[in-house]
């Protein structure tokens, strides 16, 4: 794969524009299709040398065209190959028709395919052009292939997976391996598409990288390339105040653990100082559990205003275990003009009062990051959550635009979006992160980055990445505590 395109995510619509630009620049589209099909046949031989028969399932568009090229190449190489088609081969158009005419193999109707032990399926039914739920015929075939446990190599995308959203349009193959072309598509990273792809290979079919990157939008895979330039190395002459002072707001005496997890994570992630802000009744329990994290009693907005005279306290985490209500809203609105991570109860407190928060975010000049999981997202952005036409990326982007905040829409496929529309999709998080307190740790890491002076989008994206790395390092038996111990240094 081209290094220049390693982190780029291209939507199917952008891919169509790239295709057209390639044709306009004089690149022969059939050459691209040949290259794509040859890459698929090479992957099939490399991955399944023991296959007794390659079964190529070809659809009505160019994805099917790639399939005919692959089938021809496999047959040329001496493999046993059978081709089954959805729709009439005579109805194919353009490059796909040409690929089918050049294929020496007979074509049988899709429904005639009966899986046999030793088969390897090459799925070239639908790729980027899937426009609606799969037709009935494809359903039956997919079911038979799954029941027969026949390994599948998908061309571009497993048929049924929507390349824009990662949603499954009715049903889909679950591939062992997917070969896509030039760059990843959102459907390769977003759930459930990601797990349907199996191992993903990105093959360079020869479209110049410049043509791809010029037409790709502001969407990337979350790697250090997206934010590394804002993660500066430690200055040997630094001192703790220069590394930022993070304040984390604790809940009452029976719900202090979540904020302590955020505070400990903030310190481990590099904030110079972290102060846990506690109501009077929780001071003793907090004090008994803290060492490097400092403790301060703050009862009300007056106390908070007094503390805020110290301008060195430059970032805050509010929400984990804090409690839902007016106190959370009052505190959050006071902290918005510095840098604030609003998590959990902090967000839920604004369920019926979001306009005030969003207006403050738009006008305060501070940095606001909100970190909703799916339930919290639906509470704060019900109309966006309910819009079935939007992908998770588009939902996060819409929420960021509406709230004037950076949105970290959490899950296995966490999306970080800025009000400008810039977005990254995260891909390094292990499922073992689904453990109590893991979100509190994430909020603390974001807070540390904000305290260090990172812009909100980069602070959030870098935190999500470090959180994922920490999860991998902590291993399957992790708890939120061991997750904190495994936060890696900023790269
Ligand atoms: N990008 C590149 O540079 C290159 C791309 N290449 C390849 O091209 C692929 C994209 O090709 P594509 O645009 O022809 O789309 P594809 O997925 O074959 O499906 C379209 C056909 O399916 C039909 N159809 C759609 N949904 C349907 C449904 N639910 N049920 C039934 N029918 C449905 C639709 O009909 P329509 O909706 O118009 O009625 C149309 O006939 C891409 O994935 C890659 O493999 C390579 O060749 C190398 C260069
Ligand atoms: N299946 C999964 N794979 C990878 N990461 C996950 C998965 N499920 C949850 N996570 C991550 O774990 C964290 C859980 O946060 P959250 O839902 O707020 O939990 P809690 O409130 O218990 O801390 C989020 O960062 C989320 O992205
Ligand atoms: K496919």
Structure description:
The protein is 40% helix and 15% strand. The chain has helices spanning 12-24, 29-47, 62-76, 94-101, 136-147, 186-189, 193-197, 209-215, 257-268, 283-287, 301-307, 326-335, 344-348, 354-363, 374-380, 382-385, 392-403, 438-451, 456-474, 480-485; strands spanning 53-58, 81-85, 107-109, 119-124, 152-155, 177-181, 199-203, 219-221, 245-249, 273-278, 294-297, 313-318, 339-342, 367-370, 406-409, 415-417, 423-425. The chain has 2 domains: 3-214, Rossmann fold, CATH 3.40.50; 224-485, Ribokinase (UDP-N-acetylmuramoyl-L-alanine:D-glutamate ligase), CATH 3.40.1190. It has a 10-stranded mixed beta sheet with strand order 8-17-16-15-14-13-12-9-10-11, sandwiched between helices. Strands 3-2-1-4-5-6-7 form a 7-stranded parallel beta sheet, covered by helices on one side. The protein is of the alpha/beta class and 491 residues long. Helix 2 packs across helix 3. It is elongated and about 80 Å long. Helix 4 (94-101) links the parallel strand 2 and strand 3 (107-109). Bound molecules: ligand NPW, adenosine-5'-diphosphate and potassium ion (K). The site of potassium ion (K) has 11 residues, from strand 4 and strand 5.
